[in-house]
Amino acid sequence: MRRGSGIVAYRRKRSCAAVAALAGAVSLGGAAHAGEAAAASAELQVSGVDVTGKTRPLDEQTHLSVMPLSIQDTPQAVSIIDGAKLKAQGINTLEQALRNVPGITVAIGEGGALNGDQFKIRGFDSKDDVYVDGLRDFGVYTRDSFNFDQVQVLKGPSGALFGRGTTGGAINTISKHAKLDTFANVDAYAGNGDYYRGLVDLNYRTGEASAVRINLMRSYAGVVDRDSIKSDRWGAAISAGVGLGTDTSFVVNYSHQDDRRRPDYGIIVVQRPGEIIAKPASEYDVGVERSSFLGFKNDVDRTKADIFTAQFAHKFSDHLSITSDTRLGFYSRYFQYSTLDQCNTGCTTALFDGNPATEPMGGIGGSSPYDMDSWGIQNITAARYDGEFVGFRHQTIVGLDISKQVNDKLFFAYTLPAGITTRPNMPHPIVNPDPEFPAGYGVFRAVPGQNITCPSTGNCTTNVLGSTVFTNVAATGIYESRGISTDLAAFLTERVWLTDQVSVIGSLRIDRYIAELNSMTYAGSRSALKVESTLRSPRVNLLWEPADDRTFYLSWGRSETPQGTSIVGTGTALTVAAKDLKPEESEMLEAGAKVAIPKTPLALTLSAFQIKKDNALQADPANPGFLLAQSGERQEVKGVEIGLTGQLTPAWRIDAAYTYLDSKIKESFSNCSVPTATTATTGTPTNVVCPVGVTAAIPVLNTVAVGRQVAFVPKHSASIYSTYDLSDFVEGLSIGGDVVYQSKLYLTYTARSLSYADRGTLTAARLGEAPASLTFDAFASYKRGPYRFGVNVYNIANRLNYTQVQSNRAVPAAGRTVIVSVGASF
C-alpha cells in the first residue's frame, strides 16, 4: 500500500519510525522525546565509524512537530548530520559540524555582530536562528557538540516554523536524551596542537518507562599553525524522562557549558598598492604567516551557559495529541579583544616595498571589552489533530509560542599609551607581531563622573598615576545597556490530502514582537528606544508523492526580520536611525524532488530555489532620492542543490552534496562625506563624496556593489563523505574520509567618487575577497570487543584555507592535524 492511501496506511507508516511517537506530538520542541530510540553508537565525538547506515536514509525525522514529517516528505531542502557522521569526522563544535553543509559560511563576528557562532545560510545572516530541540538557544557563544545527537539545517525562509528571521534557514540541534536502555561510553582523545578531550556518556534505565542519562565533557585545544589560540572548556548535561514510549511522557534536561578561550580574529585583509583586489595578508609573500596572531595574549572570551528544558507530551487518541515545551536559559560572558584592524596607505606601502628596514605598522580596532548577563524563557504549546473532513484526510496543528529575552551589558574601556589619542593610531606590527600589551595600554572600568572625563568631541581621558591619558571611548559611547524583547506568536498548519498522492500544506504564523533598548553613554546621557512589530509569516506547499520513496514538491514562503531582533547577538540591537524602519521581508520559491534511485539503497535530492530579500528603507524628506537609514542590502539568490546519500554496497556508504548559488546585490548604499574647501576641486577622492546639497553620512546608492555577488556567498560549494567497512578483511576495521570545497568569497565592495567634479559617478576603490578552500580529511577505526581505537587526520594537504571571514579579516584554518582516540562501550 502506498503512503497517503488512507488513515490506516498513515498510522502504519508512523509506527515504523523509531521517533514517530513524539514527532506526532506537536510542538517545535517535541523532537526531544523522539530521540529515545537513537543508538548509543551515535555519540558525537572523534573517531569510530558506523557504516551500517539505513536502507532508507531519507526516513530520518525532522523532529519538528509543527511539520511532523520525515526528510523524505519535507517540502524544502534539509541537510542532516547524524551522530555517526559527527563522530566519524571528529566534530567537537557546531561550527565544525556545519562545514559539512554546502551553502553555509561562518562569520568572525564583528561590525555589530558578537563573536561566537555566527552563521550565514545561503548568504543570509542566521546568528539568531540556532535552535536546540526546536526551542530557541538565546545565547551567543561557541557551542560544543558533546550533547548533540544530530544537527539539522532547514534551508529557505522558515518563519512559519520558527518565527522572526530565518531568511536563509534555521539550524536545529537534537540533544542526547534519556533512552530505555542501559549503557556506558567513555572516550579519550589526544593530538597535535595541544588537543586533549575526554567524554563520558552514561544511560541507565530506571524503570519500565523511565531512564536517566548523563553526558560529561572536558576539552583543551589549541589550533595547529595558529599561534596563541586556545580553548579550555568543560560541560555537563543530564536528561531524565518518565513515561518514555507511552502516551504520556515528561522529559527534563539540563546542560551546562563553561568555556575560556582566546578569540581568533584572523589575518587582516590588505590591498597591494595599485591594485583593486584585497586579500588576507597571508596570501602574499610579505612575511605575514598563517600562524600570525595579530591580537594580544590578554584577549579572553569567558562564557557560561545554563539551559533548562522541560518537555511534556500526551496522546489522547490516535487522532489528538498535545505537547508543551519550556526552556529557561542563563548566559554570562566577559569578552575582550584587541586585534590589528587597519592598514592605511603608509602601512601597505611598507608591507609591499620589499625593504626589511621599513616595518609595516597597522592600527588596533575593535569594540571595548564588555561584561554581559542575559537570560531567556520560551514556551511552545501545541495540539495536533488527524482525521477526515467532508471526505478529505487532513492534519491540523495549532499552537502558541511565547518568549522573552533580557540582556544586560556593561562596557569597559582601554587606557592608551602616552602620546596616543585614538586606538587606531596605536601602532601594531603586522610582520612579527608582539602579543604583549604595549606600555600604558590596559583595561579599566570607566565610571562616568568619577574616573573618566569626556569632552563634547574627541576621546575621553582618565588619570593614571597623576598623568592624564586618553582612552578608546568618546562621550557618545555606550557605557551600559539593557535590552528586552518579548514575542507572542500563534501558528497554524493545515495539511489536506486532495488524493492519496497529492496534498497541500498551508501554514501561517503571526508574531507580536516588542524590543526595547535602554542605555547610558559615558557622558551620562540616557536613551530609551522601543520598537513594536507585527510579523506575518505564511507558507504554502504542494506535494506529489506517487510512492513512499518519491516526493515532488513546490513551496512558497515568506519571513520577516524586525528591527531589534537581536537583543543578545549584536552590540547595539536598536538605533535611533533604524528603530522606525519596517521589518525586512524575504520571500522564497522552491521546487524539489526526493527520490530513491531504482534498484539501489541510494536516495537523490534536488531543489531549485529563489530567495528575495527586500531592504527596509527610510527616505530623507528634505532630499528626495536620498536615505536616512537602511536595514541592509536588497538581495536575490537563485540556486540549485543536489544531494546523494545511501549505501553503494553493504559496506560502502556515501553522502555527497553540491550547492550552486547565483547571488546578486540588487540595491546597496554607502554613507557619503562632505569634502573640505581645499579638496573640493583638487586631487582624487578616496571615498564617496556627497553630492552638492547633501549632508554628511546620508546613504547614497553604491553602484559598485549593485549587480555583484553577495558578500560571503560562495558560488560553488560541495562535500563528499564516505565510509567503508573492512570487516571482511580485518574484523572491526573501518575507514573513511571527506572532501569539502568552497569557491572564493567576496568580502566587501568599497566605492569612491570618480572625481570631485563628477561626484555622482562611483568607481571601485577596493574589492575584498577570500580564496577558494579545499580540505581533505581521513579517519580509521578499529573495534575489538567493547574497545575502540581511532585516528583522524585533518587537512591532509596542509592547505591554507580560511574558516571564518568578515569584511576586513579572514581566519586561517588549522594546519595538518592528527588526533588519536581510544574508547570503551559497555
Protein described:
The protein has 826 residues and is mainly beta. The protein has one domain (14-825): Beta Barrel (Maltoporin, Chain A), CATH 2.40.170. Helices cover 5% and strands 52% of the residues. Strand 29 (526-547) and strand 30 (550-561) form a beta hairpin.
**DSSP helix count?**
7
Helicity level, as a percent range? under 10%
How many domains? The number is 1
Low-confidence stretches: 1-55
Structural class: mainly beta
| CATH class category | Mainly Beta
The global form is: globular
- Strand fraction band? over 45%
For the residues shown, what is the average pLDDT? 86
Q: How many E strands?
A: 47
Q: Main sheet, how many strands, which sense, barrel?
A: 22 strands, antiparallel, barrel
The radius of gyration computed from the alpha-carbon positions, rounded to a whole number of angstroms, is 27 Å
User: Mind telling me the CATH superfamily name?
Assistant: TonB-dependent receptor, beta-barrel domain
Reported by name, the CATH topology is Maltoporin, Chain A
Name given to the CATH architecture: Beta Barrel
Amino-to-carboxy terminus distance: 41 Å
